[in-house]
């Protein structure tokens, strides 16, 4: 994302130099650990600050070309509405929305179409009445308005109908050139709570381990928001109702 706006950043090559050093000798899908130093940390923080200042939203100006870049991941959609200023695209507004459980099961085509639909709906007050281009990295969508309506499911028809009220100009852009929308569509959740660290502390806590072996207490494993189950002990099996009835009948006689 920072490389997309690098033309607006001062001394960006110098700022990123310590980070580029970490990539030397790296191969595709390289999972090796990086050596994080004070220099790389300062470089990373400087990149974030410069990007925040460079990506300050521009004031919309009539007459300038508009474009809407959208993207969808497995769990969210993202978009950036931008205008062409001085031969460069400047952001007017950003948009990101997490998909619900049903939407995450959509096909890639449907998620990408949903991303365009939600983005147009969100920004409708800005592009309304203006010609603008919609950019997507999902190539089949550029033929969406050329297909026969009866071939599309009702949901697709509704979304395409709404989009067509603003623009029918959908163009393809390579994924590597759609970095801003792609970054926004991959924001799952932002939390200051490290649930995994809490779970690890529970696993190594001596007092808790003693309580776990206390027969008078029953602990149940719990799934954390991280999606991982950090239960430290399985739930004990309970005796059935028939057993209790037979036991009560035996001692009552």
TrEMBL record:
Matches recorded under SUPFAM superfamilies: DNA/RNA polymerases
Pfam families listed in its UniProt record: RT_RNaseH_2 (PF17919)
Keywords: Endonuclease, Hydrolase, Multifunctional enzyme, Nuclease, Nucleotidyltransferase, RNA-directed DNA polymerase, Transferase
Superkingdom of the source species: Eukaryota
Domain Reverse transcriptase/retrotransposon-derived protein RNase H-like, first and last residues per copy: 36-134
One Gene Ontology MF term: endonuclease activity
InterPro entries, per the entry: DNA/RNA_pol_sf, Retrovirus_Pol_polyprotein, Rev_trsase/Diguanyl_cyclase, RT_RNaseH_2
The protein's name: Retrovirus-related Pol polyprotein from transposon opus
Organism field: Trichonephila clavipes
Lineage, top ranks: Eukaryota, Metazoa, Ecdysozoa, Arthropoda, Chelicerata
């Amino acid at each position: 994302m920072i490389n997309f706006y690098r033309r607006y950043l001062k001394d960006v090559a110098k700022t990123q130099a310590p980070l580029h050093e970490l990539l030397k000798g790296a191969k595709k899908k390289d999972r090796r650990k990086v050596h994080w130093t004070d220099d790389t940390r300062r470089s990373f923080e400087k990149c974030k600050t410069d990007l925040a200042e460079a990506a300050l939203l521009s004031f919309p100006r009539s007459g300038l070309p508009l474009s809407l870049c959208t993207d969808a991941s497995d769990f969210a959609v993202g978009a950036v509405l931008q205008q062409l200023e001085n031969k460069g695209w400047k952001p007017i507004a950003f948009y990101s929305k997490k998909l619900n459980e049903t939407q995450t099961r959509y096909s890639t085509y449907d998620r990408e179409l949903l991303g365009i639909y939600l983005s147009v709906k969100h920004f409708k007050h800005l592009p309304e009445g203006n010609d603008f281009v919609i950019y997507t990295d999902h190539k089949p969508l550029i033929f969406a308005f050329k297909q026969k309506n009866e071939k599309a499911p009702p949901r697709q028809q509704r979304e395409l109908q709404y989009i067509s009220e603003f623009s029918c100009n959908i163009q393809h852009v390579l994924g590597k050139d759609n970095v801003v929308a792609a970054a926004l569509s991959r924001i799952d959740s932002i939390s200051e709570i490290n649930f995994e660290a809490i779970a690890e502390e529970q696993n190594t806590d001596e007092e808790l381990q003693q309580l776990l072996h206390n027969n008078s207490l029953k602990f149940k494993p719990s799934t954390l928001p991280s999606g991982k189950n950090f239960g430290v002990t399985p739930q004990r099996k309970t005796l059935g109702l028939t057993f209790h009835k037979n036991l009560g009948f035996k001692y009552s006689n």
